[in-house]
Design a protein that fits this description.
It is built from four helices and five strands. The protein is an alpha+beta fold. It has a single domain, classed as Peptide Deformylase, CATH 3.90.45.10. A five-stranded antiparallel sheet has the order 1-2-3-4-5. The longest helix has 19 residues.
Length: 193
């Protein structure tokens, strides 16, 4: 049975969620060939309110895209910050905010199909490490260590590549890259008509 206190509690929860989202902004995602995507990002040193707002905005942008990961340079901010939520394909995963990440160990290799918010409607198969260990900081600046295999490992590697100025097309062979460049040129020409 629903009573007045549970209705009030639900309403207050609803208002807090609406208020929370009102202060967040969906950011425009940069797409190839934007130069910010090819530049190595700078370490985060200030864990201030501006950083916290950027993190929240990036989370909203990632979910709205929809995507499973987003690097700060994908929204035009050249800082070593990624947000990831691989829970849709990895039930042991949850939202991760990772700052100044570094892959400290990688084992094995496997092929995986990947797409990217900065390369809309393009997917390709690339080789990634099967298991990785990453060190970095959380949103409060506390040390964070993640060991992963499977889907989350691929997402972590993909997003850390972004921070190093690499797109997934930088990991494909010459012939695949030529096909990508021809397709991109055709799409650009078609878009101008």
């Amino acid at each position: 049975m629903i009573n007045n206190s549970s209705i009030l509690l639900s309403f207050l929860l609803f208002l807090s969620v609406i208020g929370y989202h009102k202060n967040m902004a969906k950011l425009p995602v940069k797409t190839f060939p934007d130069k910010v995507l090819k530049e190595k990002t700078s370490p985060v040193t200030d864990f201030d309110s501006d950083l916290q707002k950027l993190i929240d905005d990036m989370i909203e942008t990632m979910y709205a895209a929809p995507g499973v990961g987003l690097a700060a340079n994908q929204v035009g901010i050249s800082r070593q910050l990624v947000v990831i939520d691989a829970s849709a394909r990895d039930e042991n995963s949850s939202l991760i905010v990772l700052i100044n990440p570094e892959i400290v160990c990688a084992e094995g290799t496997e092929d995986s199909e990947e797409g990217c918010l900065s390369l809309p409607e393009y997917t390709t198969v690339i080789k990634r490490a099967k298991k990785i260990k990453v060190k970095g900081l959380d949103r409060e600046g506390e040390p964070l260590e993640i060991e992963s295999d499977g889907f989350l490992a691929k997402v972590l590697q993909h997003e850390i590549d972004h921070l190093n100025g690499m797109l997934l097309i930088d990991r494909i062979g010459r012939i695949k890259r030529e096909f990508f460049n021809k397709r991109y040129a055709r799409e650009q020409t078609a878009g101008k008509k």
